[in-house]
Amino acid sequence: MNKTVTGRLLRFTKPYALFITLAFVCAFISVSCSLLVPVFIGDAVDLVIGQGQVQFAALPKILLLLGCAITGYAVFQWLMSYFTNVITYRTVKDLRMQVFQKLSQVPLRYIDGMPHGDIISRVASDIDQISEGLLQGATQLFTGIITILGTIFFMVRANVYVALVVILLTPLSLFVASFIAKNSYKHFRSQMDTQGILSGYIEEMVGNQKLVKSFGFEEESIRGFEEINQTLYTHGQKAQFFSSLSNPCTRFVNAVVYAGVGIVGALSAIGGHLTVGQISMFLSYANQYTKPFNEITAIISQLQSAFASAQRVFSVLDEPSEIPDAPDALQKESCGGQVALDNVSFSYSPDRPLIENLQLLVKPGNRIALVGPTGCGKTTLINLLMRFYDINSGAICVDGTDIRAITRNSLRGCYGMVLQESWLFSGTIRENITYGKPDATEEEMIAAAKAAHAHSFIRRLSQGYDTLVTDAGANLSQGQRQLLCIARVMLMNPAMLILDEATSNIDTRTEILVQKAFSKMMQGRTSFVVAHRLSTIREADVILVMKDGHIIEQGTHDTLLSQNGFYKELYESQFAKTEEN
Predict the structure, then answer these.
(1) Domain shared by 284 and 412, yes or no
(2) What global pTM score does this model have?
(3) Is the per-residue pLDDT at 95 higher than 50?
């Protein structure tokens, strides 16, 4: 599992092969300098070991070489860290960009089916975990391999038998690292998954705090949080337990290796095979040899956390992308407004049919109202028209062309869409209104705002059209946010309109004014209106009454009332009281 993840991470570093080479060269020079330090110290010890036998003349040269080795180690260690930082942060930047781009390519089915907090957690915190793991791992990779090979070379060159003691004890270090890695990985994976669930829960509860308080759900939400938090605590505790074994275990291995080198070195010195300075050198090498194993084991928790996070991130990248446009797909430049649905069937899941064998022909300029009980397929039909979802069977045609033979961008460019749930991004009001038409002139933007009856409240704001919209429009009322969304569509002046409860959050007086603006805008345009308000439905050319994914009645308001069918039941239950008032 880790090999696969590591391989994929390494592929992201390919564009930075030059920095990898430079980091490797610096690591080689830095480690070489550090390995020379024990040699010079051992030589210096041998020059001063005997009473009255200190060789002062030779000491300055050795001390100079020692100073150069230490300086070289420090300089190239810094350069290596710089290059590994460049590799890590640029790799993570590319990875984050690729994941974000992937989110714009996956079908909406994936976005709708995933907790948004979990998606945010993967793009933000999980990639940060990868960054920390890569930074630590890359540094240890460059220095560790060279340190181990270089230490063995110097020790074998000095005394084969003492070197064998260190080499034979190596499996003990490998066993410790393997044991900790194997047991901590699964718990870190569970910890990261639970972290994503917790992020989703927090995002859901905090984002809907008004509803939580309105329904007195505070205690239940806290209990739900405590359950997830307890699960996170359990996984985190187990993960930290195994990772915490690294320090005592590596210290034990260090002690064994150090003791082994000391005993064998002392015996060799007694036999005349080693000098005291060489024993000092071997003891230093024993510490340096075990250091890479110790460092890798010490950061095992970060590495395992990075692997677990990488797997979650790669699961996003592995999601199938939205079916691409056909190579010969039509780039629709203009739209006549005819829409036909021929025997269309669609369901979100195979075991729960929703829309079946739907037939509909909308002529250019028709105003179509969609009514029906909740869950009958009104909004789903809108999603199919915009090709947010692809139909299971049948065909949807615009101006006689199957929408699957039209590029998605040009198809969606034919529509202007206003939803019940308004969406604004962090930016100025000007930027939000011109979102669909960035090259609009000031006059065009103001005209659209006036048509949407938003100009008056915008003018009263402190900075007017340059007022910053914060936190998805939290500094504006819900009605004001919706007026800005309506102004955005009016500025685009699309060929067809989709209004899904577009005036649901606007006061009655403003709604009447906006409906008049919409009526003027809809003249000559094909329009689909999902609404329950009497004014909108009365103005429609055709009312489609939907139930269980089927159009069971259609006609004008008066015609449907005279049929004494399902529409009349809806009208009497939802609108009769309105008329009486």
Answers:
(1) no
(2) 0.68
(3) yes
